[in-house]
Amino acid sequence: MKLSKPLFAAVLGLTLTAPAIAAEYNANHFFSERHSMVRGPYVDWAQRVAERTNGEVTFRVFSAGSLLPPAASLQGLRDGVAQVSYHAGTYTPAELPIANLIGNMAFYNTDPMVMAFASTEFGLTNPAALQEWSKNGIVFGGGYSTSQYFMMCNKPVETLADVAGKRLRMAGGAWTRFAEHIGAVPVSIPSSEMYTGLDTGSLDCAVAAADALDSFSLKDVVTSMNTLEIGNYYAGFEWGYNKGFWQGLTADQRDVLFDEMAYELANHRVEFDADVTKAVSSATDGGMKIFEPDAALQQALAEFVVADEAALIENAKRRGVENPEQILTEFKAVVDRWAELLEGVDRTDTDALAELAKTEIYDPLDAETYGTN
């Protein structure tokens, strides 16, 4: 159920504010502060933004859903409850059909670095995407990508036959259809509920990035992990801004935000993958078994990737997207461009990656005009 704008603001005791009169603004994320998507891109980022703007743009970071629950982050951002927020597009398919269309292309290229940079460029420059953000009262600041999704299970799951009938936590959309394709039962729940599901037996596997073994303590309830790469998640945005707030900023302040988002776009990917390595190592030391997918499971995934594009297009049309085929073609071109740009680049060199994000994505933007329409 959606709250009306006046009621939403009244419940939280907040009102829309313009940068000229506000001393502190709200930054919202529903992951915990220790997660790589929060500690760098929100906590450290907010500190640097405050320093570089001499305190004129200061954010108070709310994490773990303490300001807005996941499903309400888009509305809360639009209504000014938060001035910047993370949002997972799967919660609002009707409001963000284009963001979900490209977000469900997660099987086209499963390189998280490529998809983080590509989804950011697309969200900042594609006319159809920009129109969608504006229609929702927000300004897109930058994207992200999780690391590859794996099956983390409380029982052995190695082969296609093993998956049959298993209850898999999925992120919705293409992941749900993939579960059905391989004969599993998709269960759509937030990441915060994965632990309980595995612990109580209502889930057999959680399909998510493997950092969740630590960040969501899944290593306590997981006994095996299958390394089939089941896409990676990047739908929505890592930074979206309330339109009124953004338009009240000066061009110099927007340039600071561009620079710091470029840095954290890179840093987040480096940190996320490092967290995955650490979490998997810790879990295997604790007894978790690693299974490679059998040939039948790999073949089933390959067949799904080819077949599912028609479902993506049909779903997008049903939600009112014009020319989804063209949008997917344009997105694939951006993905392929980033696959080339990142070829041979050290994936652990945050500064080099950040410079690439800055020069190729953010520097071409006009801080005077971006997000003002």
TrEMBL record:
Signal peptide location: 1-22
InterPro entries assigned: DctP_fam, TRAP_DctP_sf
Gene Ontology biological process terms, A to Z: transmembrane transport
Keywords, comma-separated and alphabetical: Plasmid, Signal
Protein name: Uncharacterized protein
Domain of life: Bacteria
Signal keyword on record: yes
PANTHER family reported for this sequence: BLL6794 PROTEIN (PTHR33376:SF15), PTHR33376
